[in-house]
Design brief:
By secondary structure, the protein is an all-alpha fold. The protein has three helices and no strands. Helices cover 85% and strands 0% of the residues. Helix 1 runs antiparallel to helix 2. The chain starts with 9 loop residues before the first helix and ends with a helix.
């Protein structure tokens, strides 16, 4: 067993511990910033793609719905009834999609989990250093 003697005073030891702990806290803050920036950038990029795709899908959907309504009219259904049927069916599909989207969005965790875990480890380290 290697018994080394540290000739520093108690004040010096606590000073060193304080500086080390300060550095550790600063590094943890940097890690949290980096982690959150990465996640926010990814979410932002994904949101732009969803928005662009949604705009194009909306235009295509409107065109298709008009075509379905006109087809129903061509099949002999009254125009008001044809478009009402299309609206009811599209409304039901929209409700299902909204519920699915909300459920998935609620699952998203934006908390900096790695930072939280390392902060717990740092707290344990600090406790060990004080003993």
């Amino acid at each position: 067993m290697d018994d080394q003697r540290d000739d520093r005073s108690l004040g010096q030891l606590f000073g060193d511990l304080s500086r080390q702990f300060g550095t550790l806290v600063n590094k943890e803050i940097e890690l949290a910033k980096t982690e959150m920036t990465t996640r926010i950038t990814t979410v932002g990029r994904d949101a732009v793609q969803i928005g662009a795709g949604g705009a194009l899908a909306y235009a295509a959907l409107l065109t298709a719905l008009i075509a379905v309504g006109l087809l129903l009219i061509e099949l002999g259904i009254a125009p008001w009834l044809a478009f009402l049927l299309v609206a009811i069916i599209v409304g039901a599909i929209a409700a299902v999609l909204i519920q699915r989207g909300r459920a998935e969005l609620q699952k998203t965790n934006l908390a900096p989990t790695k930072t939280i875990e390392t902060l717990k480890e740092d707290a344990e380290w600090a406790k060990e250093q004080v003993k």
